[in-house]
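Q: Could you fold this chain for me?
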Amino acid sequence: MNNTPIASALALYDTASSIDRLRFHLRSQCSTPAHPSVGAITGQIGALAGIITGVSTEITRLGSDLFTAPARRAAEAYSCVLPLLGEGMTELGRLHREVIDTRNTALGNERPDEPSARRSAEIVTGCLEAADEVLGEAAVELRAEAAHLTSASAPVQAAARARSPHARVAVPVASAHAVPPASAPMPVVPAAAKGR
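A: Sure. Below is the predicted structure, expressed as structure tokens.
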């Protein structure tokens, strides 16, 4: 069982990246005027369920090693984001219900009046935005704990960037005001040469 700070941090980065991939799909649906399809929403619910299952699995795995600080911190971070993931699932559930109702209305050849259509669009947009917001909070918390668990060493930063290309990892930058190296001493001219 590898519960070193680096291993725990990379696992947290992995989970945050999975959340961000789901958020990318949610945001792409916010930008379209049409309702998302039932299949798309069902797939996103399944993706979030997989993330929640993965978090639960990590908490269970870390639970046998809570006498080490990295394991305790990682388990606490996962536990803290579970309510946020649950809120995200609630919003996706509301979204699924609204999309189903809209589809059933269309299949029944019932044309919704304009106020109803507007209200439905507002519900869909609100659910997508709310899910994106709470999932974003979860990803930020996981990355913050990952950053705390590991030092800013180059190998860990490279691994984090490879696993989470959207995450910003601090990289030391040389100062533009660094003191320049001292110049070489001027050669000494012999006295005899000066008189020539």
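A (continued): The first helix runs from residue 5 to 30.
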